[in-house]
Amino acid sequence: MSKRVERVVVVGRDAAAWLAALALRRAFGPVGVEVEVVELPSLLHAVDVYAALPSLAGLHRLVGLDEREMLRACAGVPVGGQRFTGWSGGDGAFVHGYDVQRLAIEDLDFLQYWIKARGEGLRVPFEDFSPAASAAKQGRIGRGDGDPSSLGALQHGYHLDARAYAALARRKALSAGVRARTEFAAAEFDANSIAAIRLDDGSRIEADLFVDASGAEAVLIGGLAGSDFESWGRWLPGDRILAASAPALKPLPAFAQISAVPAGWIGLHPLRDRTALVAAFSSEQATDAEMLESAARMTGLRFGGDAIAAPFAPGIRRSPWIGNCVALGEAAVALEPLDSVQLHLVHAGISNLVALFPATAGEMPESVAYANAIASHARNVRDFQVAHYRLNRRTGEALWDRAREPEGPVSLAARLDLFGARGRVVLYDDETFEEQSWAAILIGHGLMPRSHDLKVDKVPPREQMERFQNLLRLIAGEVRAMPTADQWLEPA
Amino acid sequence: MRKPLEIVIVGGGTAGWMAAAGLVGILGSDSVRVRLVESDEIGTVGVGEATLPQMRKFNDALGIVEADMMRRTNASFKLGIEFVDWGYQGSSYMHPFGAHGRPIGGVAFQHQWIRAGQNGHTFPIEDFSFAITAARLDRFDFPDEDPASVRATFDYAYHLDASLYARFLRSFAETRGVFRSEGKVVDVALDPERGDVVSVRLESGEILSGDFFIDCSGFRSLLLGQALEVPFDDWSKWLPCDSAFAVPTPRAGPFTPYTRSTARDAGWQWRIPLQHRTGNGYVFSSGFTDNERAAETLLANLEAPPLADPRLLRFKAGRRTRSWDRNCLAIGLSSGFLEPLESTSIYLIQVAIMNFIRLLPEAEVDPALAGEFNRLMNVEYDRIRDFLILHYHLNRRDDAELWRYCRAMEVPDSLERKMALFRHRGFIEQYKDGLFSPPSWLSVFLGQGLAPLHYHPMADAMPLPALLGEMEMLRSNVRTEAMALPSHALAIEDYCAASVAAGAAA
Fold first, then answer.
1. Residue A93: is its pLDDT beyond 90?
2. Any long-range contacts for B197-203 (C-beta under 8 Å, 24+ apart)?
3. What is the CATH number of domain A7-77+160-233+314-380?
């Protein structure tokens, strides 16, 4: 019988490296797999934040991280959504709330009823019918236990201090039996695979499987033939990411605020001990200092002097698994830190690697399935991000005018066309965002469906109006009963 | 409220009447006005037909009472399909509507099953499928409501007389306001500028016009194929069967709650047990036999004397590149054909209708709606195609040219990849839309003889003796519970025995 994979070496840094090592050790430690991390110098700074979607809880179950412990260690807060301002001109602010399920009446999307009612003069915004958006706007967090079919059963995402989170993952990995080295010198390549990792002291580390979690540097996979990087820069204009911090907000908001500005966007992420700023912008349009100034002007907050900026290039590695080398996190896919997807992409890499963990050392045909899964996850998230840009209504600003030009991706064009026609969402395999999220941002950005499902017409208008009022009442009641974010963190 | 959409359906048969009944049954006659034109002179392809469990959703959406429908179509229950002589001569495996075992130790069941086998403990995989075990015992009962019970691990479909089903839906549709015109369509008028379908003219001179046209004209594809000239994507290099002889016999042999497909020299023979008779047929490739020999083969392999002369059908595997073009939608054979090996014809009709209702256009058709419809249908067709090819490609028969051809042919990349991963490590891809789910792939991979070399490494975390204990328990549980079911014949007798009249009408 062929040899099993007995040794895995992860070369990388920060959350991606340690979460991957921890997940692999927990899943395969019991069958004798050794996991070692060759740690690269961290790229995180004191100002950095990880904003995460509710799906992060799934990764935490996989790696055995307790939510309360994690939040305490990372100055973390629960969040119910993201508020977008300034993207669609005027007062076009809206909230993308993390609704667990799409609202339906008799198996038909609530949205279809709303489209018709809006055409007949209804003035209540779509997001008022989202329990998650309503809770987020009122600073409240759903309990997440209770009856999952209830309107008040909400999930929450997180804002986490990035350094503390990476350190927590590191501690958990080490206590799970992951070994750690530093002083990476170079990778030794052999026949388009990795032969070994060489350290500064000249020692060599061999393994059956190498995981590249080094980020954009791609220290392992970048050295293999066929690993070229496909740029998505024509759709995602940010080429620089800025991070800074300001004092904490009180009371604690239950959402992140993502504001469009002439050169890109600025995100404010409440944490327990501070407010973390993340901005993605085009260096053709503004300097780091100008971005920081416009953030201060827009928010009225005072940002500290420890702001940090770094270059950024969005895109995907065409083959994220070559020979015995698997890339995950930004070594495989780089997307803007928009829509709180960074850790989600790390999660997608880890869970696919666990599901496709090579059955044998040597031949690894799993690489093809891994590549397909990563690419389809990444393209779907990319479409979601590009949709924000494409639907903007900021005129007379070079970056935003260009972003509206309708050139690709084809998959996004199909989604926008269908939504505009009927309010239905095209969903492909491996979607991160389900119908309710797509509907929230597309309507939020002003893409109003031109027609509705005819089944709606079977409900008499008066009954329809009563249903709407009931729904609003139900949502208001559920939200009132929820704790505020501060109460949620410090239960009485 | 907007003006009702005027829809003209060209062609009756299963597709036409399912479409008519679906439209008025789900949308009501206020939203759509449906007219259907068909000719009594044109035969429909409806023979004894096997279905998939999804059909129950369609009937439920229309408010059709199951027992009533079964009584009126001479229907029996179906738990899966038995494939005889497919992998190699003398082999038999079953593709069930249900799971094999359940995940053990954090991995899908097949990994533990492979592992047990590699450690010298080989169990037939079928022993872990409740659906297969019940089917092989000719027993049936409805799935248990308690999700923890092994009796909840399966689903069921029907064998029915498709022409009786069409008749049943016709009366359903006509009482809900569908208007039927008798006659043959002799001309299709297109708008000279826009190219849309404007009307169809019948032999009698009657002209039917409408906002939207549904082409259920069968293989002729009168509107979509002929008038609108939407090209056909030919898949016969992968699915070379292009003909079938069909013949009914009196019911004989065991009353099986499953379809049987037996591989023959140039194709395969179906056996579909209805309440009053058995539907039989031989699907074959004219490139590997001739009509005369095919008819002989069929007649030589019947359980009882035929009730009629074998009827010849001709077809070509493939699909139109778009099922919906302009203001015209093709449903059923006019949109594409996949041989009935996995009982997908009624399923494809149903999916088309349900998608169409969700994407129902206004009088002015928005191309985005058609685009999404075509995407969804293409996914369905392409995935079924791969699954069908798998049956032919993975074979070890060396006795006939067709089987050697299929074994050697190049298959689509999407299928090649699936086979490679299963062979290497028992991995089965999952996808969101379309048939088939992992249990289906598992049964056909293994049944056709593709033995995985390795399994998911995480399986080993569970000590082998504990695993074997659990597998033994599961297996005996399946057996005991299946033995407790009533016979298929009794289940039918109790629930939905057809009246003599329904039997005579067929």
1. yes
2. B197/B223, B197/B227, B197/B228, B197/B326, B197/B327, B197/B328, B200/B8, B200/B10, B200/B37, B202/B37
3. 3.50.50.60
